[in-house]
Specification:
single chain, alpha+beta, Heat Shock Protein 90, four-stranded antiparallel β-sheet, 3 helices, disordered C terminus
């Protein structure tokens, strides 16, 4: 990993933690927990930030507009050739940013196309 990539991962982590702090624990009546995990397997890696907050509320993610932080995370992930996935429910939210060099398309055997010859 080069310095630019490390900086992008640091910025993504900061944004995801800030989003958890802002949105996951309104009223702060219970102890909140945010878990940051970074795993590497060769050139593949996954960053995840999980909280035990309120999770997805009805109608919140139905809005077409996303916040500045979400846009920053998506742009930084795109620059790293990574994808962003969100899992949210009653037990909290987990955001995963994953870079993998293995794709389904590259795993499929070559196909012979009939060109009508």
């Amino acid at each position: 990993m080069n310095a630019r990539q490390a900086e992008s991962i640091g910025l993504i982590t900061t944004e995801l933690v800030m989003n958890s702090l802002k949105h996951a624990f309104p009223g702060a009546t219970t102890k909140g927990q945010i878990v940051i995990k970074y795993e590497i397997n060769g050139t593949d890696w996954e960053l995840s930030v999980a909280d035990n907050g309120i999770g997805k509320q009805d109608g919140v993610f139905a809005q077409p507009k996303s916040g500045l932080g979400t846009g920053i995370v998506k742009a930084l992930a795109h620059s790293l050739d990574a994808k962003v996935e969100t899992l949210s429910g009653i037990g909290g939210t987990t955001i995963s940013v994953t870079h993998t060099t293995f794709t389904k398309a590259s795993a499929e055997p070559y196909k012979v196309l009939n060109a009508g010859l």
